[in-house]
Amino acid sequence: MKIDQNVKRSRRLRKKLYVDEYTVYGFEVSLSFKEMEESALDPFLNDMVDFVESRNLMIAGGGGIDVFDVFVSSIDRYGSASEEDRHALSNWLGEKSFIKNVEVGDLVDANYGL
């Protein structure tokens, strides 16, 4: 769905549509693992969720022991992920020896993908 950003709207409607000052931002993260046993995936995911939640964020997505793709956004209704959050998660993932490749995307509109 594409929203015309140039239309004049009331504050209530902007809030309801998550546009202008109510835009929510998030980012994508794609991981690929070195050889990893399936039993090691759950503890890693638990640690990742704990780290993400400690920054007041949430993740959605999934994958398996070869590739894992998630979208990260704020846990708050009108909150957004920040550049600092992107860098912190990238650094945290980069420290894991069993991760072969980490790609952290740019901040994008979480509702409209702009």
Your description of this structure?
The mean pLDDT is 90. The chain is an alpha+beta fold. The chain has helices spanning 11-17, 38-54, 83-94; strands at residues 25-33, 57-63, 67-74, 99-104, 108-109. The protein is elongated, with a radius of gyration of 16 Å. 32% of the residues lie in helices and 28% in strands.
Index terms:
single chain, 114 residues, Alpha-Beta Plaits, 3 helices
Topology:
Blueprint: H1 11-17, E1 25-33, H2 38-54, E2 57-63, E3 67-74, H3 83-94, E4 99-104, E5 108-109
Antiparallel strand pairs: 1-3, 1-4, 1-5, 2-3
Task: Describe the structure in brief.
With 114 residues, the protein is of the alpha+beta class. Helix content is 32%, strand content 28%.
Q: Looking at CATH, which topology would you report?
A: Alpha-Beta Plaits
CATH class: Alpha Beta
* Rg: 16 Å
Shape: elongated
Low-pLDDT stretches are: none
Distance between the termini: 10 Å
**CATH structural architecture:** 2-Layer Sandwich
Largest sheet composition: 5 strands, antiparallel
Number of domains: 1
